[in-house]
Amino acid sequence: MPFRIYTTPEADNDLENLASDKGLDKRLKAVRKALRFIEMNPRHPGLNTHKYHSLKEGNGGDVFESYAESDTPAAYRIFWHYGPGKDTITVFSITPHP
Hints:
Blueprint: E1 4-7, H1 9-20, H2 25-40, E2 50-56, E3 62-67, E4 76-82, E5 88-96
């Protein structure tokens, strides 16, 4: 069963910034593909999803990091958590890996 993806204003802004820079079209495509994978199966092997232990979501729940890209300098990562609803995933940040 697919999840509903909710994006925070910060994640929306991250996507808008990617979309506004034509030089980042390839990265935007990778991020959109990763978001589709998260929607269908957040544990898809290509996402390399894992708990991000340095953060907790507002209610103390686990935060996860999924790869939109790998083996690329400044590869993009998607940070998310389950909720607020039963079948919902909240994406709160889409950012390049430092």
